Amino acid sequence: MTLQKLRYIVAIVESGSVSAAAERLFISQPSLSAALREVEDEIGIELFSRTNKGITLSPAGSEFLGYARQVLEQEDMLESRFLGKKSSRRHFSVSTQHYAFAVSAFVNLIKKYDADEYEYIFRDTRTYEILDDVKTLKSEVGIIYINDFNEKVIKHQLHQSQLEFHGLFTARPHIFVSSKNPLAGKPSIRIEDLDEYPCLSFEQGDYNSFYYSEEILSVLPHKKKIWVSDRATIFNLMIGLNGYTVSTGIISPELNGKDIISIPLESDERITVGWIARKDLTLSKSAQEFIGELTAVTAGIAL
Question: Is residue 150 part of a domain?
């Protein structure tokens, strides 16, 4: 088994398919498929489960991937230390609900290492897709929240997918509004204060369940409701329509400017935000560094 074949396995996992990995590696798909079969024949296990919908890592494949990544990272450090070679291209992917602090941690990670080459993926996406991305290792790390309302459903999904939740902080709910919104001067907001304003929520596609909602108190009725799919649109609607959304209260003026502010919402609800990862997988160095940045960015938060 060669280091190159280990790189092939990692590329297949990160790309999501043999064809996508072959394109990324600039080799033919038959050649990559043959290399994969050679590795499986050599170690005597199937690394991937094949279905009509594509391939996914087998349980044994997940364990193998953890070791493969460690070997490649050690090779990279060895060559950098003793052969004077620059570190090889860094790879990492994360799937997250729409949190500004996650973007801040991601930016800090990239700036900290200032690598000559890297290939990172940052997915602002839907809750169910975050769970599925981490389950299938399209992303090493996911970021979601748990509260009393969704806890049973989310923890069941985590258990079924062999995922583990690690809490970062617990916060009381806040609303995000434009700094020019009539509510902007209030020290706190009651739920009834929001009746005349459009409620903005991230839509969840085919899994548009209250349990997968990014916003707590999602079961409350609203006179005006707008579903959106991306962060930029939700901010624009806060400004253009005096809309609001419910979130953690953590916002980054450096990344988002000063047009959006957060105000505490008078509610007994609490949100525990954390990261998820596969239980059976050793995280890559980049993933561990990103979690370190996440922890630093959210340190001391108890809103």
Answer: no
